[in-house]
Amino acid sequence: MQKQRRYEGMVMGPDGNPLTLDDLPPPNTTRWVIRRKAEVVAAVRGGLLTLEQACERYNLTTEEFDSWRAAIEKHGLPGLRTTRIQHYRGAPA
Questions:
Q1: Rounded Cα gap, residues 74 and 66, in angstroms
Q2: Which residue, 3, 21, 30, 32, is most buried by CB atoms nearer than 10 A?
Q3: Where do runs of H (alpha helix) occur along the chain?
Q4: Rounded Cα distance, 46 and 49, in Å
Q5: In a domain, 61, yes or no
Q6: Model pTM greater than 0.85?
Q7: Percent of the chain with pLDDT over 90
Q8: How many domains does the chain have?
């Protein structure tokens, strides 16, 4: 796993641009598109938020967050596409 660069209150986002707490999805987010999931994972990886803070802020379970993290590690951002989850898990399409 690649270590994220971290500057005071900022990490590198999934698109290579700086990411701060203000750039993260709002706490009441219910529609989780690829970019938003990847931003939250990058924030936790980079130390902007702890796993516990992210789960509390976004009402996620640790299992749900871990599934996002694992999908990115295994398949990159395309692994976060919920419509393709069976494809990435090796199940028949």
A1: 12
A2: 32
A3: 34-45, 51-58, 62-75, 85-89
A4: 8
A5: yes
A6: no
A7: 65
A8: 1
Name the pLDDT band for 9 (thresholds 50, 70, 90).
Answer: confident
Domain with 80 in it: 41-93
Closest CA relative to residue 39, chosen from 63, 48, 67: 48
Task: Report if residue 71 sits inside a domain.
Answer: yes
Residues in CB range of 59: below 8 A, 6 or more apart: none
End-to-end CA, the chain: 29
Give the span between the Cα atoms of 66 and 37, in whole angstroms: 11
Tokens 């690649």 belong to residue = 2
pLDDT of 14 > 70? The answer is yes
Confidence label for 22 from pLDDT (cuts 50, 70 and 90): very high
Q: Residue 36 falls within a domain, yes or no?
A: no
Tokens 């596409």 map to which residue?
81
